């Protein structure tokens, strides 16, 4: 009697299954490799934590990763960063990390964004992402990420490490956010980075955080594990933090309370894509377009605070700056003639009668692929400058948004 093929698996099929790169992962009952393959993840920070985040995402077969970081690789990074080599010193962290991710998993689409994530990274990338992973040691950057994620209803999974200790926290829409967890001391340290004129002080106030690669791997592992659970629709530790103390080996979960008065709880109802770039649309043109939809009283609200003008009363001079406030140093805010501290004229709202309406949005400090809100009364249009997507996302812009 011949063998019955019904209910059996051939040796060829068995070999092909075991030869599958993700065979062991698929043995997990709820695992959906196709979901991970289609996932879009924004990783902000490509240092010690970021290296571990990116490595784990590549190993798990996550298909689309945007890596954002401002810094270049230093020799001291090599003891804590698995993706960097000595020959990489001086190169942008984000670019090297993206390239190494492709050697781990050739099918990954990993792209780098080299820039300051507080002032140069438009809200469009948050809209693109399914989940955002943070690997930074900077409160200002965390606050910016938190507000961007909340506006667009995206989960933000934060990581922080120091010496042998660390914490991984999950913030989801409508729950407690990162700002809800900030203490009075956190705000004091954040304000230390600004002068009395609100201009950014020198980098000497930031310092460096001592860390080890071992605690980086632990905290990043928890972060990515929570991201995987979220992408599969499983319950995550929303509104909670995983606290790990390496000296004693102890760990526990801590819960956070949502503060209703928190300033980060602004939420956009939806975005309206505009097939224009911030570099090719004038401020006045956007005012006109917005008034077609909202009426003659419509105004524009920028996503970031812009330093429009500096004024020296002693010399009776005023000159345009039009850069994000945080990108202007205290030294740059002094009069070029007498050296005195200048008065700053801020720009966050455009009413349509300004003297710079012929300038493009890029000219007044709006970053590519950002969102500008038009408003009149209670009505809002959140314009997304979709034509900037290829320049910011690279090959990732081909992924359906």
Shape: globular
| End-to-end separation | 56 Å
- Count of separate DSSP helical elements: 11
SS content category: alpha/beta
Note the main sheet.
8 strands, mixed
Brief rundown of the structure:
With 401 residues, the chain is α/β, with parallel strands linked by helices. It has 11 helices and 14 strands.
Structural notes for this entry:
The protein is of the alpha/beta class and 401 residues long. It is built from eleven helices and 14 strands. It has helices spanning 11-19, 23-26, 33-38, 48-60, 93-104, 124-128, 139-152, 184-191, 213-231, 283-294, 389-393; strands spanning 40-44, 64-69, 109-114, 131-134, 156-162, 165-171, 240-245, 250-255, 272-274, 299-312, 317-324, 343-350, 371-376, 379-385. Strand 7 and strand 8 (250-255) form a beta hairpin. The longest helix has 19 residues, at 213-231. It starts with 10 loop residues before the first helix and ends in an 8-residue tail after the last helix. The model is unreliable at 203-207 (pLDDT under 50).
């Amino acid at each position: 009697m011949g063998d019955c093929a019904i209910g059996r698996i051939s040796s060829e099929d068995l070999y092909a299954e075991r030869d599958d790169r993700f065979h062991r992962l698929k043995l997990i009952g709820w695992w959906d490799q196709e979901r991970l393959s289609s996932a879009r993840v924004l990783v902000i920070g490509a240092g010690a934590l970021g290296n571990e985040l990116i490595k784990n995402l590549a190993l798990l077969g996550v298909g689309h990763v945007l890596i954002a970081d401002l810094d270049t690789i230093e020799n001291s990074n090599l003891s804590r960063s698995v993706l960097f080599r000595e020959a990489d010193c001086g190169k942008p962290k984000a670019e090297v990390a993206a390239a190494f991710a492709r050697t781990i998993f050739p099918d990954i689409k990993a792209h780098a964004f080299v820039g300051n994530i507080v002032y140069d990274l438009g809200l469009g990338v948050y809209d693109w992402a399914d989940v955002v992973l943070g690997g930074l040691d900077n409160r200002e950057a965390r606050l910016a990420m938190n507000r961007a994620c909340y506006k667009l209803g995206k989960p933000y999974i934060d990581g922080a490490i120091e010496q042998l200790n660390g914490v991984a926290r999950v913030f989801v829409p409508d729950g407690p956010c990162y700002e809800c967890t900030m203490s009075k001391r956190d705000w004091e340290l954040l304000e230390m980075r600004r002068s009395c004129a609100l201009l950014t002080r020198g980098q000497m106030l930031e310092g460096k955080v001592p860390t080890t690669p071992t605690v980086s791997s632990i905290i990043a592992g928890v972060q990515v594990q929570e991201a995987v659970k979220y992408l599969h629709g499983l319950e995550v530790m929303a509104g909670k933090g995983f606290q790990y103390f390496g000296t004693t080996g102890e760990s526990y979960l801590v819960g956070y309370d949502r503060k209703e008065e928190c300033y980060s709880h602004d939420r956009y109802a939806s975005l309206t894509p505009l097939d224009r770039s911030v570099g090719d649309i004038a401020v006045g043109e956007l005012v006109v377009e917005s008034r077609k939809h909202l009426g003659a009283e419509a105004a524009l609200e920028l996503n970031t605070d812009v330093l429009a003008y500096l004024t020296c009363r002693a010399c009776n001079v005023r000159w345009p700056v039009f850069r994000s406030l945080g990108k202007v140093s205290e030294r740059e805010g002094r009069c070029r003639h007498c050296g005195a501290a200048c008065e700053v004229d801020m720009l966050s709202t455009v009413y349509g009668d300004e003297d710079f309406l012929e300038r493009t949005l890029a000219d007044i400090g709006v970053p590519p692929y950002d969102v500008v809100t038009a408003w009149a009364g209670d009505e809002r249009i959140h314009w997304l400058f979709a034509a900037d997507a290829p320049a910011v996302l690279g090959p990732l812009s081909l992924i359906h948004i």
